Amino acid sequence: MKAAKIYGAKDIRVEEVAVPEVAAGMVKVEVAYTGICGSDMHEYIAGPYPIRTQPVLGHEFSGVVTEIGEGVTRVKVGDRVAVEPLMPCGSCENCRRGFVNLCSARQGYGYTHSGGFAEYAVVKQENAFVLPEGMSLELGALVEPTAVAVHAVRQSRLKLGDRAAIFGAGPIGLLLLQAVKAAGASEIFVVEVSEERRTKAAELGATHVVNPLETDAAAFIREMTGGGVEVAYDAAGVQATFQSGVYAVRPGGEFKIVSVWEKPVTFDPNVIVRTEASISGSYAYVNLFPEVIRLLAGGIIDGQAVITSIIALDDLVEQGFEALTQDRKQCKILVAPAK
């Protein structure tokens, strides 16, 4: 079968590899769609993460079960599934406290185990979640990033009627927008440099869209809200959005960081001291796939709206990673390994 392996920065190769074998408690999935994630982009640009112990990428994927191992009861051959990539140990202190996303011995499909940029993947049965009738496999590949957004909103202090700001309108930003809308935000500001992404944000329910190259986003948000939003989310991961996001939060509010960062940032901590605002992080998700599948299947979150391209595995680099690097019109690109 074909699989995409990463060897270094800007060095991803689609190669022939052996089809993985099924063991007890495992299921073989013929991969239908795999999303290119922002964290995949970071590895493509800056090189593999230290956690990576094998080269096959892809942690946002869906497919059809083609074979099951001994003892498998959760799924059957023919089931359409979304795969949760997290593989917590279950026994470390963080896992015992319920923070399985922060497992100190964390593993995951697409990082420590072969991922979804391949024609087939073998996963634990507990990592395969059956999709309901009528929910497409394309949406199945959106379950993982949507879970990231939903977890961030659930972890934040956002309450019904609050105002929110989202910095960055890539896939996670657009999913955050829909999640805060579903959670009852009364006003939603989206800050994004790309005109196409601002247009999409407006279509998905943003109250205000701001081009930070033309407008001081933090000043605009403070003026429009009389002091700042209750919660701001960073989904871009650059110095400019961090600084604007901190200043866009009202006294006592929260700046929630959802993005992955390539470089450290600097800021004036007096901004936080003087306003008693807080800065917090959000990482992955905890036991959210069933809820997120319902949100996507029911159209409460429109996953289809963030998909801009579907490409073949052979075209992963040029039409996938390079396109996302150079073309701001692209948002979520899905890869179809079987095509």
TrEMBL record:
Limits of the Enoyl reductase (ER) domain: 8-335
Keyword Oxidoreductase tagged: yes
Similarity section: Belongs to the zinc-containing alcohol dehydrogenase family.
Protein keywords: Metal-binding, Oxidoreductase, Zinc
InterPro entries hit by this protein: ADH-like_C (IPR013149), ADH-like_N (IPR013154), ADH_Zn_CS (IPR002328), ER (IPR020843), GroES-like_sf (IPR011032), NAD(P)-bd_dom_sf (IPR036291)
UniProt-listed CDD domains: butanediol_DH_like (cd08233)
Cofactor annotation: Zn(2+)
Lineage: Bacteria, Bacillati, Bacillota, Bacilli, Bacillales
Protein name according to UniProt: 2,3-butanediol dehydrogenase
Xref: PROSITE patterns: ADH_ZINC
PANTHER family found in the cross-reference section: (R,R)-BUTANEDIOL DEHYDROGENASE-RELATED, SORBITOL DEHYDROGENASE
Pfam families, per the entry: ADH_N, ADH_zinc_N
Highest taxon, organism lineage: Bacteria
